[in-house]
Design brief:
The protein has 6 helices and 9 strands; from the N terminus they run αβαββββαββααββα. The protein is α+β, with helices and mostly antiparallel strands.
Length: 238
């Protein structure tokens, strides 16, 4: 297989701490817009593999989380939700990881090779590819040796009938089937302990209040936490 590893978004913390930082170069067909501190924080929070580490990987950033594989045996699906309280992002987040089997990882590797996904440049280099404000953006990352690739594709399903859009759409669809991504996401969302949260797709979800006693206790706790957070931020700016 052309690449040893896979990405659908934000580097295994335990591995990174013991690694020497390896040099890498960004591939010519990458999109550099999202190569930023925001994405690196996402990677660290989810304990994903870092492009500056020594481990090759392939990762796909999907709505709500991501799929990451390393080699042809190890893989996982990871979800993350950031808490929102009183229209403010708190410092709390909820992360859940689902391991992939060796068979699932091998199927993903075969899918990448069969559809020649690695040959497709980021959508800004594809003339027919149009972007909008709404919709879903998929990000594909990989590190192979010293080459790091970061590509993004805005809502393949609404693009015209051309090769690149059809291949990315088929890839995402088959990836969901192989990993059971949608079902795992439902399990994750049912376990989220917050009354309000957002994920990497920018949507905000609010839970219906069914236990007023628990909600009132939670409300007092969050009010105290946000007050302390505001106080700390004020102190940093003085």
């Amino acid at each position: 297989m052309k690449y040893l590893l896979i990405a659908v978004l934000l580097w295994a913390a335990g591995n990174v701490q013991g690694q020497d930082t390896a040099a890498f170069r960004l591939s010519a067909d990458s999109d550099t817009i999202f190569w930023s501190n925001y994405h690196l924080r996402y990677v660290e929070q989810l304990e994903l593999l870092h492009p500056k580490g020594n481990t090759d990987f392939y990762r796909v950033i999907l709505p709500g989380g991501c799929i990451e594989i390393s080699g042809t045996q190890t893989g996982k699906v990871v979800f993350k939700a950031d808490e929102i309280w009183d229209k403010i992002l708190t410092d709390d987040c909820f992360v859940q990881t689902f391991p992939l089997t060796e068979n699932q990882v091998q199927h993903i590797c075969h899918l990448i090779d069969t559809l020649m996904i690695d040959s497709i440049p980021s959508d800004k280099y594809i003339r027919q590819w149009h972007r909008g404000f709404d919709g879903v953006t998929y990000c594909l990352e990989s590190r192979t040796g010293t080459v790091y690739s970061f590509k993004r594709y805005w809502t393949p399903s609404v693009q015209g009938n051309f090769r690149e859009a059809n291949l990315i759409a088929a890839f995402i669809e088959q990836l969901n089937i192989i990993t059971g991504y949608t079902d795992k996401r439902k399990i994750f969302e049912a376990a989220i302990p917050f009354y309000g949260w957002t994920s990497n797709n920018g949507t905000i979800t609010m839970r219906v209040v069914s236990d007023s006693e628990h909600y009132n206790k939670y409300k007092r706790l969050k009010k105290k936490q946000l007050k302390q957070k505001a106080k700390m931020e004020k102190g940093r700016h003085q």
